[in-house]
Amino acid sequence: MNAEDRPMRADARRNRVRVLRAAETVLAREGLGASMRSIAQEAGVGLGTIYRNFPTQEALYEAIIVERVQRLIDHAATLREAVDADAGDAFFGFFTEIVANSTRQRALADVLVEAGIDIKAGMSETGKAMREAVEALLARAQRAGAVREDLRMPELLALLSATCMAAERNQWDDALRARALGLLFDGFRPQRPEGWAPPPKPDRAR
Fold first, then answer.
1. Among 2.30.30.520, 1.10.10.60, 3.40.630.30, 3.10.50.40, what is the CATH number of 11-55?
2. Terminal-to-terminal C-alpha distance of the chain
3. Which CATH superfamily is domain 57-188 in?
4. Distance CA 72, CA 155 (A)
5. CB burial class (10 A; 0-12, 13-18, 19+) of residue 157?
């Protein structure tokens, strides 16, 4: 087994996570001009720890993007397993999170593109996991009657991709994102006859 194949020690994993979280905090506060030293100070580690994990600034940015996507995937799994969670709220909320995350990471992605790094090339498995997460939440929302039955993954992914692109390019703020997604989600919901009301939820206390 070579060094690259050895499992990362627990303390090394913790340091890596601390650096990633600190980097997000510092970049949000200081912008892309933030130094690696500032990130090390925020994380409470030495510069050597950062460079052992991330030899270049681009490697750090790429890891931040991958970490954010993985957190979304993990959150989707939590939503699927929450028995009492509203399926419609889970689906629409997760869609909103993806769009918001896309806006936040546009600046990082631009730096990687300028450096000639193809972030998508190294995220094929992560991308597959994300599609599966979205599909599972869609199916659950459709079974609950919260999303129209004729909405399929090809259309959903096309709309999600287009929405993320619009949010990235125009740097949507929270208010604009809420209005735009509200209109889009109206098209996702089933058409109800006039006077229709949802059936009462069962009393779980019984």
1. 1.10.10.60
2. 57
3. Tetracycline Repressor, domain 2 (1.10.357.10)
4. 21
5. middle
Q: Residue 200 is which amino acid?
A: P
- Residue 136 tokens read as 């599972």
SS (H, E, C) the chain: CCHHHCCCCHHHHHHHHHHHHHHHHHHHHHCCCCCHHHHHHHHCCCHHHHHHHCCCHHHHHHHHHHHHHHHHHHHHHHHHHCCCCCHHHHHHHHHHHHHHHHHHCHHHHHHHHHCCCCHHHHHHHHHHHHHHHHHHHHHHHHHCCCCCCCCCHHHHHHHHHHHHHHHHHHCCCHHHHHHHHHHHHHHHCCCCCCCCCCCCCCCCCC
pTM for this structure? 0.75
Residue written as token pair 């919901």: 189
Sign of CA dihedral 84, 87, 88, 91: positive
Of 50, 169, 185, the C-alpha closest to 103 is 169
Residues 42-98: pLDDT tens digits?
999 999 989 998 998 888 888 888 888 888 899 998 888 876 779 999 999 999 999
